[in-house]
Amino acid sequence: xxxxxxxISIDERLLAxxxxxxxxxxxxxxxxxxxxxxxxxxxxxxxGADPSVSAALAAxxxxxxxxxxP
Length: 70
Hints:
The protein is an all-alpha fold. 66% of the residues lie in helices and 0% in strands. It is extended, with a radius of gyration of 16 Å.
């Protein structure tokens, strides 16, 4: 399957942690993130599966949307 290039934003500290882990495991950043996403998608669950987490994520989304208003 052909790979697509995407642009994402990640906190600098998180990116540094990801890069250190990739170096330790001998993986490229792209390969690690693709594996992580694939594992999560195949699991059929995620943080939003828990109703309390889903509600918290919705509340965060609302706060972010409100903060972006002029």
